[in-house]
Amino acid sequence: MATAIKSFWELISRKLKFQFIALLIFVFLVSVYEIFTICVIAIFASKLSGDPPPNLIQSFIFFDLQRTASNLGIIVIAAIVFKNISQGLLFYFGRYFAAKASGYISVKLFKHFINLPFIWHQRQSSSELTLAVEWKMHLGNFVDYLFRIFREFLMVFFILMLMTIIGLWEGVIFFCIIGAAGLIIHKILTPKINTYAEKCKSLNKSMHNLTSTVLQGIKEIKVFDAGGYFAKSYDDETSIFAHQIATRETLARLTMLLLELLGFLCLISFYLYRETNQNNNYLFSELALVAVATLRILPAMTIVAHSFSSVKVGLPFVSSMFSFLKLKSDEDHFAVREGEISFNKDIYMDNVSFEYDDSKTFKLKNINLTIPKGKMVGISGQSGSGKTTLVDLIIGLLKPESGSIKIDGSILKENNAQAWQKKIGYVPQHPYLIKGPLSSNITFGLEEKEADEDWIIECCNLASMKDILEGATQGIHTEVGERGALFSGGQMQRIAIARALYRKPDVLILDEATSALDKENEQRWQECLNNLRERMTVILISHKPNTLENCDSVIYLQDGEIINKSLPGPEKSSPQI
Length: 577
Fold this sequence. Notes:
- By secondary structure, this protein is α/β, with parallel strands linked by helices.
- About 60% of the residues lie in helices and about 10% in strands.
């Protein structure tokens, strides 16, 4: 827990730290005022009984003690009302701080995920990452419960100090017994609570993954009539989750119930002990003081016990969030930037090899390749031959294990990769469309006020989207639906091509980007490519010979190696292997 608290303090902003310190000062002031309220109630009780209040209690009071009982009653009511208002404000500011701090770290985590290396994302489950960002609720509760623990501990400390000062040692001893019992109970139950918390976390992940699987594969699920299987799996997991979370919460509640019983036993014991003391002139006022203290300390201790249990419940989630934030991101590498990278001559791969960490074989081996500026270069090969990995290396998403990639003689490195990527337009085989208008999917990542509608339309025309725009009721402002559900695969690819062109790239990379185009639209796209090649370098990945026939050269890959470099077309010379 200490590690998580330290990580939290290191991660929040300076402004939030100042707010937290101000909140602690407010807690101190409210606690002092609550002591004043308890003293007022004790004096009111002594007035009703006719017993004099303990002398030291009077030192906490600034008003005349000779007032009538009705006047003192009004003061008690006013003190309690003000106390409740201050407690309400304290609760609000505490919850507000917890929400702000958890939101701040959640945004930090969201940005961190974006900046983590591409190769790291390839190994992760997207649903788990989504769930991790959503764990800000657990972080908010974690912070809120820690704050409650501090607040209630401080309150109990002040009350015990008051009782010590006025000589109510029996009451202090009784409350210490309650506290010790609470710690013992907490120590016994905590391992079990932690076990159930981990199980709940695991089941939460599993259910989230299952939901994500169903939503992403709904078409296949319907076709294969697999809905019953997935529904049963989800039902089984929710039943187990219900049992685990009910057991966890019951164990957390058990501490509170036992402390409540022990507290009232101590209060009765205090009364019986004091009643046997014949020289006690302050029985009624002291009993009132202990009763009020009990009514305040018991809820405080139960809140502390419950908060400790809740902190333990949320700790696995919070620790996972903080562990993600400790991963080294691209942002760390980009701390020192070299500025712009020029591209006026060529892209050169010098004896480049690459392998994934979990693979014992090279995905690419000894690649030597030159791509001159302004040329159209095709890359072909069977599935798994390394075509996409080669392109990811050229883009700068992956780092070579050996060899180097040079842009006009400058080695492509982590600190200039972003500048290089700004010169690239990339069209994947399965483009991702965001929920929103067509225009936002083309400008992709730019604010609406930054969009150039004339250039959007021009890019649509270059991508052979005339039929799409004519069929769209609102033109470029037409909604595309969730993940582009309102468009066909071929239409989505043309939208992705327009997106790539919008940034006016120097290099256009198409990774099987025409695979979903029909013959008519592919012919239009070939004409478009011929126009584009005059002002940008084009790298075209495809297994279709007719798609590659207009390339200046074609690279053939097999098992991660270049086995062939040729000039395509029936009239070109045969390649030499």
